[in-house]
Description:
Shape: globular
Order of helices and strands: EHEHHEEHEHEEHHH
Radius of gyration: 21 Å
Number of domains: 1
Low-confidence stretches: 1-13, 218-225
Structural class: alpha/beta
CATH architecture: 3-Layer(aba) Sandwich
Oligomer: single chain
Largest sheet: 7 strands, mixed
Number of strands: 7
Mean pLDDT: 85
CATH topology: Rossmann fold
Distance between the termini: 32 Å
CATH class: Alpha Beta
Amino acid sequence: MSDRTTHPQDDSEQPAGAPLSLVVVSGGTGNPSSSRLLADRIAQKTADLIRRQGGIPTIQVIELAPIALDIAQAIVSGLPGEQLKAAIRKLAAADGLIAVAPVYTAGVSGLFKSFLDVIDNDLIVAKPTLAAATAGSSRHALVVDGQLRPVLAFLRALTVPTSVFAAPEDWADSALGERIARAATELATLMTTGVSTAITDHAWSGYQHRFGGNATRAQQTTADVDFDSPLMRLAAGGAPPRQEDPSGT
């Protein structure tokens, strides 16, 4: 497959003054959900900081609980349903992400991990991302950095240095607000400086991309397939080109 890429709908290249899309992924299942409450606090703080830096933020939320069935079916069949497709489109067009996962049984919830399993590996390449988690005990505080951050790194997201964790005793503690402010500052700054576009404009072809994937930027299609390569000739039942003998014999 060649390095040539196309740009059918590059949402990351925005004109000056265009709104910045902040997408929240909340894996909470309760009502109310502590994950959603934390996500809302982080998103509001980030949006406020973006405005201070001269940007125009928009906030979109992806709640995973209502699309749990779509996620499960996609894992089994590989075919996302309409609700999951809509969530994927939001992620693809995002300028920044806030990922908030609940912690169950000493690990990131299965629903949240399953959602990350069904999206393409290049969907959030270089997107500024803030990792956060909630749990019923402070003993799980390291899960966000020990489990969620590595998965986001595998997806090549640009995670901010500060993560956010909240246990029940943290909600009334001013330290949580201070940590949210620090993490939100990092996310807002990355979003307003355009670092994601700068990276992908120069390095997109250097990443591995899924054929026919759902990343909006530089999708690979049949136009990108080198049908004259030795592998494609063999697949078509033909012989690969004969290699010249450098010795001339």
